[in-house]
Amino acid sequence: MYLITYIIEAITSVKANKLRSFLTSAMIAIGIMALVGIMTAIDAVQDSINSGMDDLGVSNFTITDLTRRRGKFGRKVSKKNTITYEQLRKFKKLLPVEGKISVQTPISSSLEIKRLSKKTTPNYGVVGIDDMYLSNNGYTLKDGRSFSSIELSQGQNVAIIAKDVRLKLFDKNEDPIEKSIGFKGKKYRVIGVLEEKGGIGEGDADRQVFIPLLNANKFAAQQLLNYTATINITDPRGLDYAMSEARGILRIIRQDQLGKPDSFEIKRNDSLNSEFDQMTFILRIGGLAIAIVTLLGASIGLMNIMMVSVTERTREIGIRKAMGATPTAIRQQFLLEAIFICLIGGAVGAFLGAGIGNIIAVFLESESFVLPWMWITISIFVCVGVGVVSGYYPARKASRLDPIESLRFE
């Protein structure tokens, strides 16, 4: 019963000092909004990445050139002793496991694709692929067909385009099949269009043009091509065995000396996920630090306002004590006021943060919508904690006031 009375008195006090309560709540809301917003954006992007990994399956692993990192910022240096196309051809023939093996090589991730008077921005990619690449990497054909065995074996100038390429180069109702597109001074006939897949950054799957691998090899005279093999194992239980077999075979093909480290890298999909988790962990720590600093400032402001409130209501405290109010009752009243102000700011900040976080995720090309109930719940508990910490000293001071001296206060 007393608790309900104290809550009603806290609401009345907040209404009586609307501007002061609003400013304090706004400071709390900004801190919570920063925390929930950053965490929501990270969760939404992570959901999008994880769904993309699910499309590939957990039984995939990739073989790439060995890259070394050095320097203050961990910058990648030039690749040494790259894997060749012939080495991967031998590897595909020798790997004694059941599954699909695809080989690809990126020509560039910053090309301008042209068709007649239309052209894309210079951030589209062209990738040389074999017959297994599309299925191994979760692509689905929407229109047209995939490469034929003749087109692949002869390296013909044909292409399969992704969604954004079609939107940029063709009219809405125009059929792109059998039309020509160009890049790097060469013309390619479009034979297929892919379903939307999504992606982030330069590797956006919807900004890609795929050409036969042998056709891509023709660009080796102009630039260094880096080949990647993706192995999709039929039985996930045999993944570790397949990876060890792949490592042994490729070491023999590349003539790696006994006792020396691999001259290539093997990564499974969950290792890619763990790398992304490490990156998001750093972002979460940064968001948490921003929120803590903001909430620290807000808590100091709240404490100051509660101290002013105690001074302004000294006579009221004296009257309450003269009528029998205990120090505990006075302390609880002021604590509840501080907590109530924090909860108002926390609730507003949490839902604003969730909305802003999802908007940021959309700009990062994530299709996931996340309502972070966990972070909203955490933010509410944080607000209660801030209210208790900020309101305890003023509440304690109010509870210790002498009733006679309080009644004399002007």
TrEMBL record:
<comment type="similarity">
    <text>Belongs to the ABC-4 integral membrane protein family.</text>
</comment>
<dbReference type="GO" id="GO:0005886">
    <property type="term" value="C:plasma membrane"/>
</dbReference>
<dbReference type="InterPro" id="IPR050250">
    <property type="entry name" value="Macrolide_Exporter_MacB"/>
</dbReference>
<keyword id="KW-1003">Cell membrane</keyword>
<keyword id="KW-0472">Membrane</keyword>
<feature type="domain" description="ABC3 transporter permease C-terminal">
    <location>
        <begin position="289"/>
        <end position="403"/>
    </location>
</feature>
<dbReference type="Pfam" id="PF02687">
    <property type="entry name" value="FtsX"/>
</dbReference>
<protein>
    <submittedName>
        <fullName>FtsX-like permease family protein</fullName>
    </submittedName>
</protein>
<keyword id="KW-0812">Transmembrane</keyword>
<dbReference type="Pfam" id="PF12704">
    <property type="entry name" value="MacB_PCD"/>
</dbReference>
<feature type="transmembrane region" description="Helical">
    <location>
        <begin position="338"/>
        <end position="364"/>
    </location>
</feature>
<feature type="domain" description="MacB-like periplasmic core">
    <location>
        <begin position="21"/>
        <end position="220"/>
    </location>
</feature>
<dbReference type="InterPro" id="IPR003838">
    <property type="entry name" value="ABC3_permease_C"/>
</dbReference>
<feature type="transmembrane region" description="Helical">
    <location>
        <begin position="21"/>
        <end position="42"/>
    </location>
</feature>
<dbReference type="GO" id="GO:0022857">
    <property type="term" value="F:transmembrane transporter activity"/>
</dbReference>
<keyword id="KW-1133">Transmembrane helix</keyword>
<feature type="transmembrane region" description="Helical">
    <location>
        <begin position="281"/>
        <end position="305"/>
    </location>
</feature>
<dbReference type="InterPro" id="IPR025857">
    <property type="entry name" value="MacB_PCD"/>
</dbReference>
<feature type="transmembrane region" description="Helical">
    <location>
        <begin position="370"/>
        <end position="393"/>
    </location>
</feature>
